[in-house]
Amino acid sequence: MSQATFKLSNTVSKLIAQVREIMVKFIANVLVYATPNPSMATLKTLTDNLEASEGAAMKGGTDKTKQMNLDKKLVKDNMAGLLGYTQSTSGGDAAKINLVANVKKQSSPKGLLPAPTDVRSIYGEHEGEILFRWKGVVGKSTYVMQFNDTPGDDTKWKEIGFTGKTNYNASGLVSGKMYSFRIATVSAAGISGWSNVSSHKAT
Asked: Which residues contact 70 (CB under 8 A, 6 or more apart)?
């Protein structure tokens, strides 16, 4: 199984150009990648914001540079999510990966990584939120997340999306309602089994 990668520059102007080029590829291959997560509209907004903050930072000012760096991090975080979507949707098929990304070279194949452990949930800071945390897995590409708004019914699991982080703030939930959450590790070898389930009421 092949592993997808995006070769992204740390230079803002190059990063913007690279992300926009990747967006064009996704749009051209909509039959294979029908529901990108994040969406191309989201990425367009983020790259436009980064381009604007880069222009402002060039005029000077610590606050403007700080904003540019925050916008750059947002773009890279979302591209990490898109990478997870690419890996999952392609099923590790090198030909499908090459439509929108690069195939990562590996010196030796590895087996499936374990699922994340120590999955916990706590009240979020705002109404309708739950904050989930878990212990990271070394060597992962990203994580795929699911939630269940009917805990105990295994037919109700729904995919949230992908993240490269070890926490997720679920928002827009019904205050006081119980929700369950689980997560799996995505790597070059595929997707692990699901983690333990963590359940909590929304704030």
From this structure: 53
Say if pTM beats, i.e. exceeds, 0.85. no
Query: Could you tell me if 193 and 170 are in contact, meaning their C-beta atoms sit under 8 angstroms apart?
Result: no
What is the CB-side half-sphere exposure of residue 151 using CA atoms within 13 A? Answer: 11
110-144 per-position pLDDT tens digit: 678 899 999 998 888 889 989 999 998 988 888 88
CB atoms within 10 A of CB 131: 17
